[in-house]
Design brief:
single chain, about 200 residues, mainly alpha, Arc Repressor Mutant, subunit A
Length: about 200
């Protein structure tokens, strides 16, 4: 059966009736979004695949609880986010990983092909920005990074974080304000960070 032209609600209904292939299609359709949500919460690829799988298994078990007042994708992302946060809390090294993430993390600020001197300055800038982001409260940091990723709209992020869209917008705005202030105090402008857009 082709995934094209079959809506999420139809696939959910088939899966509820025991059609495992329908749930497999939902997994295929939303795999990337779930992985990116988990990656945003964890800040590293380590363990992200496992947590994403746990999220899909939890969604499968709780399909009878799904209520269609929200989209299936938003509901699934909220499960993935909660699973990732639970994993993050259990991993005591999260803060150190966040401050100095591996090179392949998705949210890392891109560099350019510049001189060696500029490359050193870029590295220092990135390190300063990472430290300042890490100093934000988890609620502000999560909202900022999910928003800055460009992978999700405000409705999806609000669903993941289980907060109203208005609260999310305030958190993103406040995170940007605090980051801008901290960068200014460090002698840097927000334009350098990539998080001032909005």
């Amino acid at each position: 059966m082709s995934i094209q032209g079959v809506s999420d609600p139809e696939l959910v209904e088939r899966a509820r009736r025991g059609d495992d292939a329908a749930f497999g299609m939902l997994v295929d359709r939303h795999r990337t979004a779930v992985f990116r949500a988990v990656l945003a919460a964890l800040g590293t690829r380590e363990g992200a695949d496992e947590v994403a799988q746990e999220a899909f298994m939890a969604a499968y078990r709780h399909l009878p609880d799904f209520r269609e007042h929200a989209s299936f994708k938003t509901w699934l992302l909220s499960i993935a986010w909660r699973k990732a946060l639970s994993h993050r809390r259990s991993v005591r090294t999260f803060v150190s990983r966040f401050v100095q993430p591996p090179e392949e993390t998705e949210w890392q600020i891109p560099g350019g092909g510049r001189s060696q001197e500029q490359a050193v300055l870029d590295t220092e800038l990135k390190d300063t920005i990472r430290r300042q982001i890490a100093r934000l409260t988890p609620k502000l940091r999560d909202a900022l990074l999910l928003s800055a990723s460009g992978d999700y709209n405000y409705d999806e992020i609000a669903g993941m974080l289980a907060i109203p869209v208005g609260t999310l917008k305030w958190r993103v705005s406040e995170a940007r304000r605090q980051l801008k202030q901290r960068l200014a105090d460090s002698g840097l402008g927000i334009r350098d960070s990539g998080f001032g857009r909005g």
